[in-house]
Amino acid sequence: IPGYGDSPPVEMVVTAQGRRTFLDNVLQELGMQRPVLVSPSMSGRFALPFLLAHGDQLAGFVPIAPVGTRDYTAEQYRRVQTPTLILYGDRDTRLAPQALQNLQHLPEHRVAMLSGAGHACYLDKPEDFHQALLDFLHQLK
Questions:
Q1: pLDDT of amino acid 17
Q2: Can you say whether the dihedral through the CA atoms of 72, 75, 76, 78 is positive or negative?
Q3: Alpha helix (H) residue ranges in the chain
Q4: Is 119 one of the annotated active-site residues of the chain?
């Protein structure tokens, strides 16, 4: 994620609109058409603005305890028709409950809780994570 970790700061990603545009540019450069966007943790700052503005460009959305869910209203989430799999580990007691509370306003959502997994549930329970993800992907049109 630009501007995080050891990556250099990028002026464009300072605002939600800039992060949305950045992600839009990445998807265009990759030539992706109706991808499924998987968004763990800090990537929520990019994925959520994109979802709310361009959710119709996505075949699906998989938030994994993303940050930034409080930045949007229930009404904004209710307008999104993108099929969504809300994934989280039951040992993530800080960010996951907050994200779930906000993201459950997405009308086309389902939830997969990975038992015994923490915030990085895909690392803690990779087989369970991949099975939930594959089940979701197979149900998409």
A1: 86
A2: positive
A3: 16-29, 44-54, 74-78, 95-103, 121-124, 126-139
A4: yes
41 is catalytic: yes
Could you write out the three-class secondary structure of 30-58?
Answer: CCCCCCEEEEEHHHHHHHHHHHHHHHHHC
Catalytic residue among 39, 43, 92, 109: 92
CATH number of the domain at 34-138, out of 3.40.50.1820, 3.40.50.1100, 3.50.50.60, 3.30.365.10? 3.40.50.1820
User: Which pLDDT belongs to residue 8?
Assistant: 47
Given the residues 41, 43, 109, 128, select the one marked as catalytic: 41
Q: Which of 39, 43, 109, 119 is catalytic?
A: 119
CA 106 centroid distance within chain: 12
Task: Kindly tell me if the per-residue pLDDT of 12 is higher than 70.
Answer: no
Provide the residue ranges of all domains of the chain, joining segments of one domain with +: 34-138
Against a cut of 0.90, is the pTM above it? Answer: no
